[in-house]
Amino acid sequence: xxxxxxxxxxxxxxxxxxxLSCAASGYNTRVYCMAWxxxxxxxxxxxVATINRDEDGGTIIYADDxxxxxxxxxxxxxxxxxxxxxDLKSEDTGKYYCAAKRYYDCSLDAPFGNWGRGTQVTVS
Length: 124
What we know:
By secondary structure, this protein is an all-beta fold. It has strands spanning 3-7, 10-12, 18-25, 33-39, 46-51, 60-62, 70-75, 80-85, 94-101, 114-115, 119-123. The chain is 0% helix and 48% strand. Strands 2, 4, 5, 6, 9, 10 and 11 form a seven-stranded mixed beta sheet that branches.
């Protein structure tokens, strides 16, 4: 049974930090493109960061507005994905989703077919 389960969301003051985790059960994160997306109320879901398959160099892409503040990483031995978020801003508020795709494009605009249910992050 494959599933992506996010955790670690919560409420934090501006300037604070949170660490999101995604348990990727049934996935081999070594061969999947993994990503974090977020959706703010009334807005479209947007890509936050992606980390490519090991065979494609494990390259990382960040959205411009999180560069230098967020860090995406994965632990292939545990099949987990992490998003370390520092210096959080009110505009980072939203529901954060873990996503995975097996083939091809691993960019922020790529279509992902596997999603978790999300975890809420609120920055005040």
